[in-house]
Amino acid sequence: MPQTIVEKIAQAHMAEGPNRPLRAGDFLSIRPFHVMTHDNTSAVMSKFKGIGAKKVRDAGQLVFALDHDIQNQDEANLKKYRSIEAFAKEHGVDFYPAGSGIGHQIMVERGYVVPGSFVVASDSHSNMYGALGAVGTPIVRTDAAAVWATGEFWWQIPRTIQVVLEGKLPDGVTGKDVIIALCGLYNHDEALNAAVEFSGPGVASLPMDARFSISNMSTEWGPLVGWFPVDAVTLEYLRGVHQRLQAMGIERFTEADIARWAANPPLPDSDAAYAARIVLDLNQVTPHVSGPDTVQVMQSVAEIEKKKVAIQKAYLLSCVNSRAADLEAAARVLRGKKVAPSVKFYLGAASAWVQQEAEKRGAWQALLEAGAIPLPPSCGPCIGLGTGLLEKGEVGISATNRNFKGRMGSRDAQCYLASPEVVAASAVAGYITGPSRFADRTPVREYQEFASGGYAAERVEILPGFPERVRGRLVFMPQDNVNTDAIYGKDYTYRDDMTPEMMARVVMENYDPQFAERTRAGDVIVGGFNFGTGSSREQAVTCLKAKGIPLVIAASFSQTYLRNAYNNGFLCIEVPALVKRLREQFASEIAAKEKTIIPGEEVDIAFTSGTLTWHGESFVFPPLGTVPQSLVIAGGAENVVARKLGLIGQLRN
């Protein structure tokens, strides 16, 4: 049976699954090539120990890279970092201390990602690894603990969308502009929870850094994988990685491996079945910005610069756009100029190696001379940590990948996303603008769905022990794209002292500050489309459990959110017809911008019949698959792993 590249690479890394060629919708157990964790390693350690595991199954799979909260020098954080380092030494795990760089950059520049490999991280921007011809996809903390203990985790193969790139980017247009265009053009969940396979004659014209940016920020677009084919550009990058590591006495792959990838690159079958095809003419892409506060809204720079949107802060940092080529591009814009007095311009390299390279080329000094404020190579402001956050009423422009309200500082600030060149030009001007003039045009939308490439329907029965029904007061959250920052804010994500009671008090704080006070245990949440989009933080599920919420209904979910839910034994179901009905019923409240609507009536979910009843009306929903059911019955993936290890007495609910 013909296969997409994701199906092929998953087949090559399958530990347990169907005894046939894999296809979209199949559940299987994957043995990944590598798994990276960052500051959340401490949380994974707790889960690993909670399972009852004593020894890492394969230390060679694991990579630890501290990168999120490295500016935080309080004793609690330093103690956490020391405990992670001690665990790494005890188990023989590769460890990169604070200051080494952002974990995703470490993974690609240190040779942990190679063509045809399956590489994961407990972070949502793992899609970036697809730029090197690998399947890179996010997992969650419980998955990471499972890999540590057993070498494996469960996965469902996503449908694949083919994105055909034609033409060539005009001078001054970047990979960041490509992914901003894709996010803005296809902003109705066309690519949600899919794998995206880039192809076409335009790929060859894209430099490696552009591919990294596109794959990385494909996360915000909605896909779980952003894969590029292996070509001369890929091989040249890998040779550079090999030579640098070899000079340090490290060999993660050989010249023979590079020759093998050149001769036999991983490719999909020519007659593989795709769920959809998108065609993008690179010639038509111009500099664009995303936002404010969402990647689903885009404006051309030619359009927005007419409005002279004043900015107070600018950012050139993060795993999407602070590699050497990005820093050089910004330096070319800034040489001989100064950052506007009204603007603070924050600068951080993707890694210590990148900063050294930028210093060697003179780009780093040029940026500092223009007035950039240097930060250590880390996530920092991109995740809302450390120096330089947006204050109330401020507007920022950033070369990062995510601009959810409140993510980079105050909820009463606004953030736009753009390429390094546009960020640099805006920092000088004091308002959003670009370094060059372009026509005000947007690429043509070209999208076609196919019947043959979707999920194969699974015949499902309700397993013994799975809940027959759930009843609760309906709590309607009408907004689409309620993200993980909204559900559980950045201020609490990397705190290890949050008790369930504390988590319950801050649930939905960034969505509706009154939510925790107005809701109660037993309530059933109903959300819109793409509920739980954003990061892989597990607390976006566990805070709802802590609040006593038994179930979330939505029109659709982020797949990463569903992973977290099932791994924690938490119920989620998709009932788009109910959401449509509620929007009709509460149109006036929605028009009045009410964020949380509590009509007072109960919703009754009967899993045995697959029906939901509200207000005397019935709605049908498909049954959960056997794997999610099994996880819910077991009380979560930790208990499943404990059983697998024979640690039945250690099980927890």
TrEMBL record:
GO molecular-function term, one example from the UniProt record: metal ion binding
InterPro entries xref list: Acnase/IPM_dHydase_lsu_aba_1/3, Acoase/IPM_deHydtase_lsu_aba, Aconitase/3IPM_dehydase_swvl, Aconitase_4Fe-4S_BS, Aconitase_4Fe-4S_dom, AconitaseA/IPMdHydase_ssu_swvl, Homoaconitase_mito, IPM_dehydratase_rel_enz
Highest taxon, organism lineage: Bacteria
Pathway: Amino-acid biosynthesis; L-lysine biosynthesis via AAA pathway; L-alpha-aminoadipate from 2-oxoglutarate: step 3/5; Carbohydrate metabolism; tricarboxylic acid cycle; isocitrate from oxaloacetate: step 2/2
Every Aconitase/3-isopropylmalate dehydratase large subunit alpha/beta/alpha domain range: 7-430
EC number: 4.2.1.3, 4.2.1.36
Function: Catalyzes the reversible hydration of cis-homoaconitate to (2R,3S)-homoisocitrate, a step in the alpha-aminoadipate pathway for lysine biosynthesis.
Protein name (record): Aconitate hydratase A
